[in-house]
TrEMBL record:
Taxonomic source organism: Kitasatospora setae (strain ATCC 33774 / DSM 43861 / JCM 3304 / KCC A-0304 / NBRC 14216 / KM-6054)
UniProt protein name: Putative LysR family transcriptional regulator
One cellular component term from this protein's GO annotations in UniProt: protein-DNA complex
Molecular-function GO term, any one: DNA-binding transcription factor activity
Alphabetically ordered keywords of this record: DNA-binding, Transcription, Transcription regulation
Family matches, as Pfam families: HTH_1, LysR_substrate
InterPro entries from the UniProt entry: LysR_HTH_N, LysR_subst-bd, WH-like_DNA-bd_sf, WH_DNA-bd_sf
Domain HTH lysR-type: 2-59
Domain of life: Bacteria
Gene3D superfamilies recorded: Periplasmic binding protein-like II, Winged helix-like DNA-binding domain superfamily/Winged helix DNA-binding domain
Length: 294
């Protein structure tokens, strides 16, 4: 009989690529991961890994087993949701991940609503970039999370992760010292989020669609800080609706025909879990009506 815990290690190796990364993600030592994968190979009776020096790759049999593992883990998630429904109601810890502007602008109201409806549910929030959400969900560090994508930077599907349709959509604004079209800032210095984030990729794509590449001066992962830098003439920025609630004097906002869309993410099979459903309902009440209809 194949052990589910070892199958999970193989699944993470397929996603993360190295034993060291699996160990870090799941709080194991690298030697423990290697030992458990060796035991899994003996259980399977066929080679699952190919070792070349320090690198490890999955064999065709290993890749097929990962595909079955995804289905097994989804079924277990569904079973857990059904058992949770059999209890009296949502209770216990609910680990929520969200990006910074949602934490500030939406989650306080959503958590207050959640507490009033389900006082036995203990919500715990972690600020996390959407790029790190899939790994945190698979590792069990989060139960549900808010992720976003942009019109020109759609989200990539992740094995083992399910997404709802867009919960809300925010317009994007060009923030500058004076109002004007995007194309007028091809020679301006730009303020963006750090490389590797969806927000940074969005600025690159939007500027490229206008016929130029942005000359990035500052890399700051906080929209309030970006706006503060715009206000003192340090450059221009693209900021979504939730990021402009504290716009300082001297900054002009030009609305663009582009949106940032937020979805709820959770482990595949977990949509019916009462705690996840309760959070989704509470979040809906916290989203302003003009964003829900965007």
């Amino acid at each position: 009989m194949l052990d589910v815990r070892r199958l999970r290690l193989l699944r993470e190796l397929a996603h993360l690529g190295t034993i060291a990364a699996v160990a870090e993600a799941l709080a194991f030592s690298p030697s423990a991961v290697s030992q458990q994968l060796s035991v899994l190979e003996r259980e399977a009776g066929v080679p699952l890994l190919e070792r070349t020096g320090r690198r490890v790759a999955l064999t065709p049999a290993g890749r097929n087993l990962v595909r079955h593992t995804e289905a097994v883990l989804e079924l277990l998630e569904r079973a857990g949701a059904e058992l949770a429904h059999a209890r009296t109601g949502p209770a216990g810890p609910l680990r929520i991940g969200a990006y910074p502007s949602a934490v500030r602008a939406l989650l306080p109201a959503a958590l207050a609503e959640l507490a009033s409806r389900h006082p036995e549910l203990e919500a715990m929030v972690t600020e996390v970039d959407p790029a790190a959400v899939a790994g945190a969900l698979r590792a069990g560090e989060l139960d549900v999370a808010l992720v976003h994508e942009y019109d020109l930077v759609p989200g990539e599907p992740e094995d083992g992760i399910a997404l709802t349709g867009p919960v809300f959509a925010e317009p994007l604004y060009l923030a500058a010292r004076s109002a004007g079209p995007l194309a007028g800032h091809r020679d301006s210095p730009w303020i963006t989020s750090p490389a590797g984030t969806l927000c940074h990729a969005m600025v690159q794509r939007v500027c490229q669609s206008a016929g130029f590449s942005p000359r990035v001066r500052h890399r700051v992962d906080d929209f309030a800080a970006q706006l503060a830098l715009v206000a003192v003439g340090q450059g221009v920025a693209l900021v979504p609706h939730l990021g402009v609630d504290r716009c300082p004097p001297g900054v002009a906002l030009t609305r663009l025909p582009l949106y940032r869309r937020t979805r709820t993410a959770f482990r595949a099979g977990g949509a019916a879990h009462p705690a996840v459903a309760a959070f989704a309902a509470a979040l809906h009440t916290a989203v302003p009506a003009e964003l829900r209809s965007a």
